[in-house]
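Homework help board

Subject: predicted structure for assignment chain

Our instructor gave us this sequence and asked us to write out the predicted structure in token form, then describe one feature. I got the tokens but I'm not sure how to describe them. Can anyone check?
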Amino acid sequence: MEAEALARNNQEAESKVVFDLLEKNRNPSYITTTATGAAYIEKILDSRRLELWGEGKSYLAMKRKKAAIKRGPNHLFFGGQTFSYDDDRLSMDIPQAEINNNPKLK
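My token output:
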């Protein structure tokens, strides 16, 4: 996330130092990318997806970037469907009993 933040704040050289450290820790033979701009940021995001696969981070990243996500065809529910970041089906309601019984929510 640090590498992405630096890249998005026009500090690409500093970002590549951070990104290289992560990538070389994963793969000692990693060679610094020559990608720049949007292509470089996409490389960072691809790396994050690989590193955090199965950790549940894609939902928050999708919301933060206001992106859409397409579920793979292997999903039991909504397989192959695309969801926008603001789709109501992605928001979870607080149960009414929790609202009624939690004074911090009133």
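Reply (TA_rk): Your tokens look well-formed. For the description, you could write something like this. Residues 1-51 form one domain. That's the kind of observation they're looking for.
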